[in-house]
């Protein structure tokens, strides 16, 4: 996953302090975020100020072109068609039929997360949608084996928008990072210039709070 930010240096300071990440240059106008030397995310400078300041979750696929065709056939759309990212792989942006945007990643030399589910790393992606039955059908068809067929611990769920957000909030994915202590994490977010968007609440996958960083990108912190 990556964050598109107007100020990359401010993002490095915020997330480096919050999660203990270190950073190194990556191809293009982006940096790798690492924890204990393992890749956990990327931060990228927004190429266009009209683009939203957001975290994007990417689903791995062996064939981004083929998956893109399936997405459009199922009523979604390709926002950005697949394009090469150096020798690291190929990326694309898509939207489901309700407008929630997500990424596709066809790995080359970069397979994706080097570490997850530990404090300071990705732990969960929640889709907030207005039609859970339609979302189940769309994503179940696209990613059935990945989501339901492996027997591995799930990393993905969905809920109605109005469970956490105002009814006018558009459907979207929300990236969750695991933290060791939720109160400490929320205190750090506020100290670093972010804000609490939704105070802690209980879910089936842990205790969660929704926050924004110091540039307006929303994400969640999760204590399991």
TrEMBL record:
Transmembrane segments: none annotated. Keywords: Hydrolase. InterPro entries: Anthracycline_SecMetBiosynth, Glyas_Bleomycin-R_OHBP_Dase, Glyas_Fos-R_dOase_dom, VOC_core. This is Hydrolase. Pfam families: Glyoxalase (PF00903). It comes from Streptomyces bungoensis. PROSITE patterns: VOC (PS51819). Residues 1-107 form the VOC domain. The keyword Transcription regulation does not apply. One of its GO terms (molecular function) is hydrolase activity. It comes from the Bacteria.
């Amino acid at each position: 996953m990556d964050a598109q930010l107007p100020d990359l240096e401010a993002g490095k300071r915020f997330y480096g302090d919050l999660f203990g990440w270190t950073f190194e240059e990556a191809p293009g106008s982006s940096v790798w975020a690492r924890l204990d030397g393992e890749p956990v995310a990327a931060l990228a400078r927004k190429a266009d100020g009209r683009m939203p300041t957001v975290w994007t979750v990417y689903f791995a696929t062996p064939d981004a072109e083929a998956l893109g065709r399936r997405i459009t056939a199922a009523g979604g759309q390709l926002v950005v068609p697949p394009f090469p990212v150096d020798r690291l792989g190929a990326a694309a942006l898509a939207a489901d039929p309700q407008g929630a945007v997500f990424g596709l990643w066809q790995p080359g030399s970069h397979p994706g997360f080097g570490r997850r589910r530990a404090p300071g790393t990705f732990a969960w992606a929640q889709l907030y949608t207005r039609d859970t039955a339609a979302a189940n059908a769309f994503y179940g068809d696209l990613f059935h084996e990945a989501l339901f067929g492996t027997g591995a611990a799930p990393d993905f769920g969905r809920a109605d928008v109005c469970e956490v957000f105002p009814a006018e909030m558009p459907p979207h994915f929300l990236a969750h990072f695991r933290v060791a202590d939720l109160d400490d994490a929320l205190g750090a977010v506020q100290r670093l210039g972010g804000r609490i968007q939704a105070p802690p609440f209980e879910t089936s996958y842990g205790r969660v709070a929704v926050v924004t960083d110091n540039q307006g990108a929303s994400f969640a912190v999760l204590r399991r």
